[in-house]
Amino acid sequence: MTPTTIAIAVLAVAAFGTIVLLLGNAASQRRMGEDIPPALRPGYSDDQLESNVLERYMSWGLVLTLFFAVFLPVYWLREPARINSKATEEFVQQVVRGGELFEANCAECHGIDGGGGAAASPYGGQWPAPNLTNIVKRYEDSRTITDVQNLIETTLHRGRPGTPMPAWGSDYGGPLTDLQINDITAWILAQQVDEVAEAQPAADLSGEQLYTQNCVRCHGAELQGVVGPSLVGVFERHDEESVLGILRNGINLGNGVIMPPWQNGYLYEDTRYTDEALGKIVDYLAEQQPAELPPGAEQYQSPGLGEPDPEPPATEEPTGTAQPTEDDTAGPAPDATDAEPTTTSTDV
Ligand code: HEC
Ligand code: HEC
């Protein structure tokens, strides 16, 4: 018997007792005057009141008062624990359901334990699928991703347009309901490990190699832009320090695709880079700029995959990136909500 059943049993007995008492009274009153309406029946006579009628009433009142005086606080004290254990129970069930959904839908790309894998790229070759077991840690100190749970849910709903990550939410034409997406998110959150690999100095890799490994699939071998914007003319928009900041922190303008933060390691353990490695990439980008920029190259040009969500600025320059900050460990943080479409043209 759980405490709840005991409490219910006690309450039931008390209620039953009260009813018997009231019925008993009503019956005895009825015997006194069969045809008189209840409101007009004479009350107890003085003699009756002299006997134990009043005491009986008062002691029952006392019993009930004492009962509630004990029952209610005890119930109240136990309530938070009860709610907590229910919530835990619910979360555990969610995680179990989420695990099954993950295995059926996600494991082929992200690995059976969510540890990362690869998918066929729509542009040929392979596209790495991120490790999801350290996603909280990876974005922990990110300036552009402030709410990882929200990032996971948004990513699940709409996918990453232009990448192999499909849209799962029925609101974006996917097969999963909101509840199923919540379940999978719960499962992912329950898998989190508390560590990411050490940042790699990538000492033996050139800027070109680093760019080819990490950036080509989104920005193109000629810097022409694929999922991410064209990087031809990028230094017309940002100075080198700002570009370094973008590489450290990533950008998320909210059009579905994100530019990952490379200082925390994006896909695999070995893609977590020090400023030294990122600096090599910046140098490479600078070297690759054509001597003469094609017309319009100084504009932020994105293939614009995916609809902006909810307000534009998918094809706008992320404003705020042009200001290098004094903070060395974390560069400037362009942010969707900060980007003001009206000011972008004046920056060009
Ligand atoms: C066809 C392969 C494929 C399937 C199936 C797939 N994903 Fe992905 N997922 C990817 C790829 C590739 C990326 C990285 C996209 C990018 O580079 O921006 C990704 C990115 C993500 C991210 C963002 C990770 C980050 O660090 O920003 C999350 C979260 C995610 N997937 C969860 C899931 C879940 C949950 C499922 C199952 C419902 C799933 N994915 C199914 C390929 C896949
Ligand atoms: C998963 C795709 C993806 C990968 C991988 C990626 N980027 Fe990006 N990148 C983007 C997207 C998308 C944007 C634009 C952000 C937005 O619009 O939200 C962007 C923006 C940028 C910008 C800012 C451009 C501007 O004019 O504001 C730079 C610089 C950049 N990326 C460099 C890189 C480099 C260097 C790498 C490799 C280390 C890289 N990116 C890897 C998707 C990616």
SS elements, strand count: 2
Shape: rod-shaped
Strand order in the sheet with the most strands: 1-2
Cα end-to-end separation: 74 Å
State the CATH architecture of the largest domain.
Orthogonal Bundle
Classify the beta-strand content into a percent band.
under 5%
Low-confidence stretches: 306-348
Describe the main β-sheet briefly: 2 strands, antiparallel
Helix content: 40-55%
Number of helices: 13
Radius of gyration: 34 Å
Q: Helix and strand string, N-terminal first?
A: HHHHEEHHHHHHHHH
The CATH class name of the largest domain reads Mainly Alpha
CATH homologous superfamily descriptor of the largest domain: Cytochrome c-like domain
Average pLDDT over all residues: 81
Plain-language structure description:
Helix 3 crosses helix 7, helix 8 (207-214) crosses helix 12 and helix 11 (240-249) crosses helix 12. This protein is mostly helical and 348 residues long. It folds into three domains: 3-89; 108-190, no CATH class; 207-347, Cytochrome Bc1 Complex, Chain D, domain 2. The protein contains 13 helices and two strands. Strands 1-2 form a two-stranded antiparallel ribbon. Bound molecules: heme C (HEC) (2 copies). The site of one heme C has 21 residues, from helix 3, helix 4, strand 2 and helix 6.
